[in-house]
Amino acid sequence: MADVSAPTHRYQCIYCSTPCDALYRVYGVSATQTIKLSRCTHCQRDVDPYCERELMLVILDCLLFREEAYRHFLFHRYRDLQLNTRESKILLLLASSCLRAYVISVAEHGDLEENVARWLIYFLQQTILSGIVYFLQSQCIFGCILTLAKGSNEFSPLLESCGEGATNELFTQIDLSLLLPTACHVATIFVQIWEDSDTVRLMGSCLILAYQWFALNTIVRGRLGVSSSCSKTVMVTIVFVLSLLVRDVALELIRLTWSEVPSTICAGVELKIGNLWLPFLASKELKIPQLCLS
């Protein structure tokens, strides 16, 4: 990782969220340099031991729902990977949209070999739709969080952490919390080689939703302090579910303008019991719709 001793960014302990000036300090010169991790003044532990670990180990801990790994990545590591640049955001959005569109296209039209032209057109439509809904969802979450910060004393520290142009940093973190978990669609695609079923796609969608919620909750807890009450986690959950509903309502409106058969508005998850679908909101027709994947 790059030298972060300069106080150009705000760093924090991944265990207790105490702010600090640097993640590590460099002693000595040239080949005799020694790197020593900074120690937290509150919990007396290393501020961020993940600085010394490879990226793959950090990703594995993120897959295991390690909150410290999420804080390391969403508050520190993403800068070294240059994921906060406009080009990186566009590439991430495109990659996430393509993965989601591919899974939906396979669910709707099967493999590419059956009808190439029709499949590619549908794939391009779903890629555009996915990019739009991800953008709408991130905007909804960002707006709700700032509204909570202005209207609630419990969330008011968010305004301090977002002061002096740091709102772009918060928005970037929210984008990453939504886009990066969609990489799990790669696992869904590999599993579909052996079993191409709605169950596989539903399980992949649920896993991505879990990672997105956990990442969003980690961001808010990291800015408010890890000792934040359970009510804050409940509010984050409500904001996340609301963003899913806004996303899917917008998706339905766009599909209607494209003269497609309306599918069930499902907040990312649909429950199938026998031949009936029980959505969160009633659909116009009782028929098996396409999966509304995250």
Automatic annotation (TrEMBL):
Primary residence: endoplasmic reticulum
Membrane topology: Multi-pass membrane protein
GO biological process: intracellular sterol transport; regulation of plasma membrane sterol distribution; sphingolipid metabolic process; sterol metabolic process
Job of this protein: Mediator of sterol homeostasis involved in sterol uptake, trafficking and distribution into membranes. Regulates also the sphingolipid metabolism.
Subcellular location: Endoplasmic reticulum membrane
Protein name from the UniProt record: Protein ARV
Recorded family membership: Belongs to the ARV1 family.
InterPro entries: Arv1
Cellular component GO terms, alphabetical: cortical endoplasmic reticulum; endoplasmic reticulum membrane; Golgi apparatus
Keyword terms, alphabetized: Endoplasmic reticulum, Lipid metabolism, Lipid transport, Membrane, Sphingolipid metabolism, Transmembrane, Transmembrane helix, Transport
